[in-house]
Amino acid sequence: MKSEWKAVYKVIPDERDLIEDTLKQMCDQERCCLVVTTGGTGPAPRDVTPEATEAVCDRMMPGYGEQMRAISLKHVPTAVLSRQTAGLRGKSLIMNLPGKPKAIRETIDEVFASVPACVQLLEGPYLETNDAVVKAFRPAGLIRSSKPAAP
Prior knowledge:
Elements: H1 16-29, E1 34-38, H2 49-56, E2 59-60, H3 62-73, E3 86-89, E4 92-97, H4 101-111, H5 115-121
Parallel strand pairs: 1-4
Antiparallel strand pairs: 2-3, 3-4
Helix pairs in contact: 1-2, 3-4
């Protein structure tokens, strides 16, 4: 079975109010189960994405930021400057990724393994992955059988 989904893209400037409003719109109106931001996670004065994310989330998911930094530290010592984070707003998972394409690829490939289980626990859709790219990890209670239900 294929996971049905539609990508929604937004490109906005690094302005906290605009980031907060856009995150709310994507979670509340667009009903995105996963919202991924890129950039704005460093120590520069304009880097306000983590603060905007924290402001709109009901609960934070610090494990994602910890894992992303650990992955990046394998590649660059400046990963300690990153303030990547993730949080939950309603039934949406919001993840702040780094801004550089190489760093995005390095972190998302490894971190994404847990995203389908998180989305499922939030009562979102059952996300399937291409195992050749990333194999989703699900605890036994979250694995859906591929066999059709008995009549």
